């Protein structure tokens, strides 16, 4: 770690994030193996498509637990839009798609991230519940089970597409962002560019954690 | 699929005496065990199709509008649809169309997901918890390949069961329905692309238990398999292409370089 870096996430956040992310990726891959016959070979890696089914089902349970912690942890920060500044941001797409001179300053999460969180949370819950019914289809009426398959496929369309947006903007589309979820420490320049309002808030509240500085020093810095 | 080989099995309910020879022959040929059942007030035994019972004579007491009593016998089992919902949902290809137009089942590929169970409009595939697989009639695929008739047809004493080419059987079915007259009708050729099992029913289809009047491939399968499935790949591919274009045209979002005239201590500390 370098002196002057700022802590963006704590260890718990990172563990929850990667529990959800890795189980989600495993579910997408195994799901693809069952959704498309041309991807059946993915099952060969696991000793057959039947084993793949079990990997998918039990990973789904893990995903459900990770999703619970994800929602509990982030819904206040990332699940609620703060108007009107979020609307302003959405109107200009945060300056991500075309040139905007001064895009509205964002806090810990920008509205795009909030939309991603809401999509994952909402469709994640749908995936978990529909998946449970699909696991035990004989215990439910056929009409219900048929609807569950449609919803599960719809959730996949949304989450799979959003996953690649997240992947791009979390890596090469926004250099420096990946560190926030890997080590948890980001540069001040990155924070100032990506989440200026959050940086100001932390400075004002004295909650800014700077590497190599005493926490109290950070506090006095804010005044 | 070669149309020359397309076969259809005809079940003429007006000739069936419910001897259940077909039921026994089916079990014998397919080496399926019999499970102990309880008397439940009907000759229909076992009470329903099971993983080990692929065909079954349904016994039904029926009183028509003229207060006439009738005992209806209907051999139930896989209808071998042309547009088979089970084949459409099967993730592994275990359920597939054969060269005879029938729906075959490659048991070794079945993963026991039970998707076919809720998709089938006739409620035919049955699940075995023991093997974690589903089972159903395959119209004696091994026998058809050896130019033999299915075990049920072979065992039928009254000629209620017969098998042959599609045209031949359709002709036979309509001729028979006409001859019987009354409410007699042909069931199977008007939906799901035409089934490879045809009935000559003595009564209207709506009279029979567990026989859907207008079976169809569930609409949900169309949304799922024909819309959402391609959409999933299209959407993901679109996002990937979009991200690439974004990167090369708009560029990534980078932290600002500290300007030469503003060597603020914040920036210094940051980078």
Concise overview:
Chain A has one domain (12-175): Fumarate Reductase Cytochrome B subunit (Up-down Bundle).
Descriptive key words:
heterodimer; A: 223 residues; mainly alpha; Fumarate Reductase Cytochrome B subunit; two-stranded antiparallel sheet; 9 helices; 2 strands; elongated; disordered C terminus; B: 271 residues; alpha+beta; Alpha-Beta Plaits; 2 domains; two-stranded antiparallel ribbon; 10 strands
Textual characterization of the structure:
The complex is a heterodimer of chains A (223) and B (271). With 223 residues, chain A is mostly helical. Helices cover 66% and strands 2% of the residues of chain A. Chain A has helices at residues 11-35, 49-78, 85-91, 111-135, 142-170, 177-182, 188-194, 196-205, 215-222, and strands spanning 6-7, 185-186. A two-stranded antiparallel ribbon of chain A has the order 1-2. The two termini of chain A are 26 Å apart. The model of chain A is unreliable at 217-223 (pLDDT under 50). In chain B, the strands form 4 sheets. Chain B has a 4-stranded mixed β-sheet with strand order 8-1-10-9. A two-stranded antiparallel ribbon of chain B has the order 2-3. Chain B is 31% helix and 17% strand. Chain B folds into 2 domains: 3-217, Alpha-Beta Plaits, CATH 3.30.70; 218-253. Chain B contains 8 helices and 10 strands. Chain B has helices spanning 21-30, 85-89, 115-119, 141-145, 151-155, 166-180, 219-250, 265-270, and strands spanning 7-12, 56-63, 69-76, 95-97, 103-105, 126-128, 133-135, 161-165, 185-187, 197-201. At the A-B interface, helix 2, helix 5 and helix 7 of A face helix 3, helix 7 and helix 8 of B.
Number of domains of chain B: 2
Shape of chain B: elongated
The outline of chain A comes out as: elongated
Order of strands across the widest beta sheet of chain B? 8-1-10-9
Beta content of chain A: under 5%
Distance between the ends of chain B:
68 Å
Main-sheet strand order of chain A equals 1-2
| Class by SSE composition of chain B | alpha+beta
The CATH topology of the largest domain in chain B is Alpha-Beta Plaits
Q: Helix coverage percent of residues of chain A? A: 55-70%
Question: Helical percent range of chain B?
Answer: 25-40%
How many runs of DSSP E, i.e. beta strands of chain B?
A: 10
